[in-house]
Design brief:
Number of strands: 12
Radius of gyration: 18 Å
Strand order of the largest sheet: 2-1-3-4-5-10
Largest sheet: 6 strands, parallel
Structural class: alpha/beta
Length: 274
């Protein structure tokens, strides 16, 4: 497997995956809306062995505020890419999905979660109808010490790192008991490459991608307080957010993949040097 397409290759996860694949000797082509290349109109006219589809508008709150636009960029783009893959001899299609499809356990609570679930269903159809090996990776909360701040739609880790840099008050939504499985971005990259190189071990359509342990916002606050003197401000819970997320039995670890960055070390690296 030599020719690889990465959508969203300038994004947070996609850029790291793109560089890791290039360093490993793959012939990698990237496409990204940030460069003005819309998948709906700018797909290359050549064949690829594998597609990593990471391009998306990934923020829950943003999807609540802009449901139609995010539907276009998350669902229609995936549909277009699947059809293109069918016509360009793609053997493996690895789709970046999300734990947002679970909601509070009864299904999506946001347009973003719904979009990912719809695309997973279409991946299954393409696998059944056109014999494209599809795998959907349901990422939980991805973080790293160099995660960029993205304004009001940022993750809690990146937002708090930025506020510490600026000497500002840190906001904590709700009671702080919202729990998450945090997974380091390096482990998400390795999960994607593992799936491409071990398709014979993937007998399910989707897998949860998380570290396998949870912590809540108050736990992360304790890490921050260990290294910094900061002020905290309480805010209402954000619309569309769920209280608890945790990877289930169908985690990618059952295929033989394992994460390498433990949560304690990862969070320490995020906040100790800020």
């Amino acid at each position: 497997m030599n020719n690889v397409l990465v959508t969203g290759h300038n994004g947070y996860i996609g850029s790291r995956l793109y560089q890791e694949l290039k360093s490993s000797g793959y012939n990698v082509f990237g496409i990204d809306l940030k460069e003005g290349n819309d998948i709906l109109h700018c797909l290359p006219n050549e064949n690829f062995d594998c597609v990593f589809h990471l391009a998306a508008l990934p923020r829950v709150e943003y999807s609540v505020e802009n449901p139609f636009y995010t539907m276009k960029q998350n669902v229609l783009v995936t549909s277009k890419l699947l059809e293109w893959s069918k016509d360009h001899c793609v053997k493996t299609f690895i789709f970046s999905s999300s734990s947002a499809i679970y909601g509070d356990g009864s299904g999506p609570k946001s347009p973003y979660g719904l979009h990912k679930l719809i695309s997973e269903m279409e991946c299954k159809l393409y696998q059944d109808l056109f014999d494209i090996k599809c795998v959907c990776l349901r990422y939980f909360n991805v973080y790293s010490e160099d995660q960029e701040y993205g304004g009001s739609y940022s993750t809690v880790v990146s937002a708090w790192m930025q506020m510490i840099k600026e000497g500002k008050t840190l906001r904590i939504d709700g009671d702080g008991e919202q729990s998450r499985d945090f997974i380091h971005v390096d482990d998400v990259v390795s999960a994607n490459i593992w799936c491409m190189e071990n398709t014979n071990k993937l007998d399910k359509l989707w897998y949860d991608v998380g570290y396998g342990d949870t912590c809540n916002l108050n736990d992360i606050r304790a890490v921050v307080d260990r290294y910094h003197e900061v002020e905290w401000q309480r805010a209402p819970e954000r619309q569309g957010d769920v209280k608890h997320t945790e990877i289930g039995a169908q985690r990618l670890q059952v295929t033989g993949w394992e994460p390498r960055v433990d949560l304690e070390s990862g969070l320490k690296n995020c906040f100790k040097s800020k």
